[in-house]
Amino acid sequence: MIVGISVHRSQETAKISRYIITTGTIVDYKVTTMNKGEVHKVYGYAEIAEFEVDGVTYTATNSISSTYGANDIGDSIKIAYNPLNPHDCIFVASSNDVFIIFAALLGSIITCLGIAVLICYCIRYNAWKKSNA
To answer: Which residues contact 65 (CB under 8 A, 6 or more apart)?
Structure first.
């Protein structure tokens, strides 16, 4: 999952370098159900923003949804758009997004280390048990 997020972000970064960055305004959220369990449902919120290019207003929906609304309606947000086709746009990652990716990566590393320690402990325990049998 982390690798997928990193690849997606690096592709977006390459696009952003060729795009023009402007400021848009969050006008709404697209709400989706991320988990369709009977007892517990998790909702995702993707920002919908408007931005203007050469006097024309465009509306875009963030391709990444979150389980919390990071920004409020009316807040400003950075959007990078293709100067040849402003409909082709990307929401520029905020420092919050970078922090979330970093925290997820760090959590994954700590989890892997914990699993490795548990496996080593089990192997040593079985070896000790056999030697004392």
So the answer is: 30, 32, 34, 44, 45, 46
